[in-house]
Amino acid sequence: MSVTAELRKLFEFELYNYLKENIIYSPNIKCLKTEISIKKTKINQASGRIGFRFLNNAQGYCLSTSVDSPELIVFFNKINPPYRSNNPEGVVYAMNTSMEIGFKSFAPNLGGTVDLPRNEEERKKTCEWIFTKVRDIYLPRAINLIELKPETIKDIILFPNYYAYPFLTILYLSKKHNRFLTDKEMELIFSKRKRILGNKLFDKKLLEIYL
Q1: Given Cys at both, which of 2, 39, 48, 189 links 142, Cβ 3.0 to 4.6 Å?
Q2: Which residue range forms the structural domain that includes residue 59?
């Protein structure tokens, strides 16, 4: 076994145990070897995952996360928008940390990776670092969408490219929670820089119908 392979084995085992001991949310959240799985429940068929993948060229780990939501898919199919999803079919949210532009939430490295720790002290610090990022950023964002919380609207405005249909998801959540969009939110939604709209005329008409 190579030195890198041995270091990976040690770290991944320690990370698994650290996350298993420290992530306490609900019974449907399970820590597996290299991912956190958010399972379906009797009252919610949505699910998600947060995974960690080692990249040889970067000698470090990137984080990826995705969410499936049958409730949103039904809505998307009903609307049948004249533009493509940002994600593969059936996936309502997907990102990896190499997609983080500007300020990188997961890691400061160019590829969005956390370096493979080389000794026991580094392993402990890296486990703490990853746990904090998962607890404070990536898990809440996934749960917000899985549970279709209105907080997801803010998440979408910040990171529209992660969502299959950012505008349609905002529309659905606004309607579901009887929540009016603020003037600032509307300004950001219609901003070309944000790329939230799929088709301006089509989406504007939907806004008039649903809200």
Answers
A1: 48
A2: 3-210
